[in-house]
Design brief:
Layout (H helix, E strand, L loop, with lengths): L9 H5 L5 H9 L9 H45 L4 H4 L6 H36 L5 E4 L5 E4 L1 H10 L14 H4 L6 H7 L1 H11 L3 E9 L2 E11 L9 E7 L1 H38 L4 H32 L8 E4 H18 L2 E7 L5 E4 L1 H17 L4 E13 L16 E11 L33 H11 L3 E7 L3 E9 H4 L13
Helix pairs in contact: 10-11, 11-14, 12-13, 13-14
Length: about 525
């Protein structure tokens, strides 16, 4: 039986509603409306056990969340360490505040690192763009003298120096900075003496220069190499190398020096002859008519030569002027034929040479600077008559379609169709003594003349073909020379029809004179 009387028992009421249990409760000062039985106790224990189970489940769930968060954080860290992390992929609401705080700190460091990386990449791209726009080959070398950066001109230039060797492993469509990793400059630096220049630059911390001779694309070039330190005072500082091809500048300077020397010589010779003739007349006296006559003839001949020289110099100066205005007149070649006949007809007849004109009907008109065209034909006809002892001099005008355009000397793309373009050609052909092969590349130089025996004493100033070359180039054309010793010479002036065309040329063919 229970120790305490239940409120519903008969004994409880028999005792006036007061049992032993009630007395005990009263003694304790506690009022209990009811007491617990075994069923109630089991319910309480069940509730407690359920609570413990829920608590355990909650702990398990929290632990799983913590493990999940740790795995996510570890995966995030591994991805960032590998360089391919994505903040948006792993960013989530963390179940653990401590881990959340750690993640936020870690993510902040990552964001700062990415910001610094972006800034570094921007500076690198800015550096690449800067050196790419420099019109000289530029290379940046590290402490081991390996090229770490360069512009495309450097890649092309080095490829021309050692075609297929320095660019081994590189690809044409790869940016220059990446292709620089495939270029080994060790042998180049040693062979050219640039390595000593780099050492001197690092030791002094100052920019140093050196002039070297290089064979670029089969041609000897004069190159100035400028080396400068990125961080002066550091023995392992990167070095910037700039290569300046001064071949053209040196050639231009030499040409100016040669021009001055040749012009002085051409002026000095007739002036000396004139002075000698005057002194002869003074010594012989005015009464010696024969001597006076001979000396006056000498003076007159050299004065004419000086006039011709001065005129040629003026013509050359005008044709070489890049700012000179080139007109686009409508030129009727028949009118130029009449002018040339008036100028050179008597000279040709005196030497027994036939002066001919052959103007094709579809090439009787052209657009261009009439002054330059007449100047060109005058110099060519004059040269041909001077150096032709018998036969003929023929001036021709015609159209011609050429495969490969006017760039026949350039390589044609493999498998590509030949380009075809129409040209207008003016040429002067003679049956003179011809030009030796060794002189053909130089006859267009200023003051250059072939051996005097080619034309006898009646030689020109050496400026005629130089004037022709610049006059034709000023109108967008080119000059070609074809010659055979003791057979004759043909000089062609070639213009694309797109530059000189005037539309349909339907002039009648002129009779041969």
């Amino acid at each position: 039986m229970d120790t305490f009387l239940q409120p519903t028992s008969k004994a409880y009421y028999d005792n006036g509603g007061r049992g032993d249990g009630q007395r005990i409760v009263d003694d304790c000062g506690v009022i209990a409306p009811f007491m617990w039985n075994s069923t109630t106790l089991m319910v309480v224990v069940g509730v407690l056990l359920a609570g413990l189970a829920l608590l355990a489940a909650s702990l398990v769930i929290d632990e799983r969340k913590r493990r999940r968060d740790l795995r996510a954080l570890r995966k995030f860290a591994q991805a960032e360490a590998a360089g391919n992390g994505q903040d948006a992929v792993v960013l989530r609401r963390w179940g653990d505040a401590d881990l959340r705080e750690i993640y936020e700190l870690f993510a902040g460091l990552i964001r700062q690192r990415n910001k610094d990386r972006d800034a570094t990449e921007f500076r690198a791209r800015l550096l690449d763009a800067t050196i790419e726009h420099i019109d000289q080959p530029v290379a940046i070398l590290d402490a081991d003298n390996q090229m770490i950066r360069c512009n495309s001109r450097m890649i092309v230039w080095m490829g021309e120096i050692r075609r297929g060797h320095l660019l081994e492993g590189g690809q044409p469509d790869v940016p220059p900075t990446e292709r620089a990793q495939h270029v080994d400059l060790t042998d180049f630096l040693v062979e050219t003496g640039v390595r000593e220049l780099i050492v001197a630059t690092r030791e002094s911390g100052l920019g140093c220069t050196r002039h070297v001779k290089l064979t670029v694309d089969g041609r000897q070039r004069s190159v100035e190499v400028l080396a400068s330190c990125v961080m002066p005072g550091d023995a392992k500082t990167p070095v910037i190398l700039t290569f300046r091809d001064q071949t053209e500048w040196i050639a231009s300077t030499q040409m100016k020096a040669d021009f001055s020397a040749n012009a002085s010589h051409e002026l000095r010779t007739p002036l000396a002859s004139i002075r000698a003739a005057v002194e002869t007349v003074l010594d012989a006296g005015i009464d010696d008519q024969a001597t006076v006559k001979r000396c006056m003839d000498i003076i007159g001949g050299h004065v004419s030569r000086l006039q011709l020289l001065v005129q040629d110099l003026l013509d050359l100066s005008r044709t070489e002027d890049p700012n000179a205005l080139v007109r686009t007149d409508l030129i009727k070649l028949a009118e130029l034929q009449n002018v040339l006949t008036q100028i050179f007809g008597a000279m040709a007849a005196q030497k027994g040479i036939e002066l001919r004109f052959d103007i094709a009907p579809d090439a009787a008109l052209m657009r261009g600077d009439e002054r330059l065209i007449l100047l060109t034909l005058k110099n060519l006809v004059d040269n041909s008559i001077k150096f032709t002892s018998q036969g003929s001099v023929t001036v021709r005008s015609y159209r011609q379609v050429r495969a490969g355009g006017n760039r026949g000397t350039l390589p044609r793309p493999a498998g590509g169709a030949a380009e075809r373009e129409e040209f207008l050609i003016l040429d002067v052909k003679d049956t003179g003594c011809g030009i030796p092969p060794e002189d053909r590349q130089r006859v267009f130089e200023r003051f250059y003349t072939v051996n005097r025996s080619r034309g006898g004493a009646d030689r020109g100033t050496g400026l005629g073909l130089a004037i022709v070359k610049h006059a034709v180039a000023g109108m967008g054309g080119t000059v070609e020379l074809e010659s055979q010793v003791n057979v004759g010479t043909t000089i062609r002036c070639v213009w694309p029809m797109t530059r000189v065309a005037v539309g349909k040329m339907d002039a009648p063919k002129l009779p041969v004179s």
